[in-house]
Amino acid sequence: MPESGIALPRAAPRLRLAQFRVLIVDDIETNRDLLRRRLARLGITDILEAEDGAQALNVIRENTLDLVMLDIMMPVMTGFDVLEVLNAEGRIETLPVIVISAMNEMEATVRAIELGAEDFLLKPFDPTLLRARVLATLEKKQLRDEMRHELARKQAELNTARQLQLALAPPPYAEAGFSLDVVMQPALEIGGDLADHQILPDGRHLLALGDVSGKGAGAALVMARCHALVRSLAARGDAAALLADPGLAAAAMNAELESNNPSCMFVTLLLGIYDPADGRFDYVRCGHVPPFLRRADGRLESLNASRGLPLGIDAGARYIAATAWLQPGDCLLVISDGITEAASPDGVLFTDAGVAAWLATPQRALAGLVALVREFEAGYPASDDLSALLLCC
Amino acid sequence: MPIAIEELADGITKVVLSGVIDIAGSAEIDEPMQRVGESGNAVIVDLSGVEFIDSLGLRCLVLCGKSVMRRRGVLVLLAPQPAVKKVITVSNIHALFPIHKNQAAAIAAITPSLA
Hints:
The structure holds two protein chains of two kinds. By secondary structure, chain A is of the alpha+beta class. Chain A has two domains: 17-158, Response regulator (Rossmann fold, 3-Layer(aba) Sandwich), CATH 3.40.50; 168-392, PPM-type phosphatase domain (Phosphatase 2c, domain 1), CATH 3.60.40.10. Chain A has eleven helices and 16 strands. Chain A starts with 20 loop residues before the first strand and ends with a strand. By secondary structure, chain B is of the alpha/beta class. Chain B has one domain: Transcription Regulator spoIIAA (2-Layer Sandwich). Chain B has four helices and five strands. Chain B starts with a strand and ends in a 5-residue tail after the last helix. The A-B interface holds A 211-215, 263-266, 268, 286-290, 307-310, 313-314, 337, 341, 383-384 and B 22-23, 54-56, 58-59, 62-63, 66, 90-93, 95-96.
């Protein structure tokens, strides 16, 4: 008795044969009658008939069928002609055809299989072989239909999740003195990057850009949890302390994310608070790519004074915040590593250098950077989620 | 084979990783790394042969290292290539799992924890 945890398939599949509809195509009436009786003995009673190829195609177009039993040698329109039309109309993938032929017609049989027939049966019919071939074909069709249905359902679910997730991305923003542009492009239907912008009661702006380890549904769930945590900072009892020192805010978020996290999904995060009144930018960098600060005179600085582990790894981790002062004409760019690790077809990475090149000229919107990265990838699918925040003073 | 495990003297486990540790690479090393996490007390992860590592690969390292640390053990990283070293230092993971340039230094760093 095998001790695997996997259920082995049953030898006789439990098909509800009465549900299947079969079309018999043969120019000779007695052949059709014989096959009808044989199928009835198997339990298949929903049977349509056609006496030539043209009639068969009409029946196929007007009815939902599960199987066609097709005689090859017919006058006017042969079984081959029927198969060719089924191919041209794109029906052959979803409608199995078993061709009926004779022992001395093997070449014709092979040609029919090449034209897309699923299987063949020889006349005179052997009851055992008829049963085996018909049941096998119907079971395959049922499995394929179920799989297609399941895939469509999952795709629809993912699309819903995608709409919900994209709705979490903040819109671009501008007020006197500064503008904010945001981009969030998941690599798959849903992703693990998060971007947030919140105006605090005191007029400062809370900015966040995060990257969950991994992609897909699991990462998206952690992303949603993280997004909620960022949003909740301002509402907590200790909000004043947390928003005065982003390092404390990071520690609070880390404590939440580290618990109930046996698979160690971690989040890199850049959390910053910008005060337009004096240009002060307090930030904490939790294992995240250091932001780029382009000064008005073109100098490029890397904001790596702050450091800390990604959130969710070590309950006791300490986070040290830092401060930068933004002047009019400065540009702050926070990115996820989907940009620096974007790969060209020959495996070269975009890197910091690619970003620095873009920032060589003053920029106010991210569309240009995204276009550069996509051009660099040259149409190949993105390997990681792409997101960025651009704050221009 | 992207992973090879050796037992060195004094109960030190050396894990040699190589190639590309991305989503596919992590899938290959997940189980062996988990086993090392559950049994190793002094672990050296040799990264000299790793060309690329992404967040999934890091997560694999973190899972293993956390298991080791839960049992009061130590895990250190050995000689990562520049690109890999950058990923590790940007994420600050080296604060948990220190990087050493050569095996002698790694062993010297681990040995006190075995006493």
